[in-house]
Amino acid sequence: MGLVLCIIGIVLAVFVPTFVRRVRINKISEASELLQEMSDRAAAYYATSWANGKRFCLPQGAGPTPAEPTVDSATVDFAAEEHSGHENWQALGFQPDRPVRYSYSFLPSRHGCDLVADGDGGSVSFRAEGDLDGDGVRSVFERRAAIDGTGLRQADTLHIHRRIE
Q1: Which of 8, 68, 72, 141 has the highest CB neighbour number within 10 Å of its CB?
Q2: How far, in Å, CA of 91 to CA of 4, rounded?
Q3: What is the C-alpha separation between 148 and 55, in angstroms, rounded?
Q4: CB 113 within 8 A of CB 49
Q5: Domain ranges across the chain
Q6: For 70-98, what is each residue's pLDDT tens digit?
């Protein structure tokens, strides 16, 4: 009996940390994947939008949506009127197809059309904030893009502050 308990203890000592690490990686991959989707949708909007004969448009900022991140994932309708910038989420077509744990924000330094007319198009930040363990300390993930006449030039870097808080 002692040998069986010893073997069970060894197996748990090896597999429990691996399982916990996989769960954390799964939780943080949500932010990375959805920020990339948000960035792609904003780039498509920028490249194809027109208003009053002008192109290169971006809507105003949106979020954070939901207003507070959750420990457990929750289904959120980003286009619902109770969310900040709901019409801008709708314009971008950003609606996660799964429950989310993070609050998402779309933060252009400028909005409107003809954003490159004066040569300085500005930039856009795409941000996810989460509190995965409910301790009040948030992880922040941010992807950035520069606005110019050829489109949104996305940075390859995903900026992370407190990846696993």
Answers
A1: 141
A2: 60
A3: 12
A4: yes
A5: 2-161
A6: 888 999 999 999 998 999 999 999 999 99
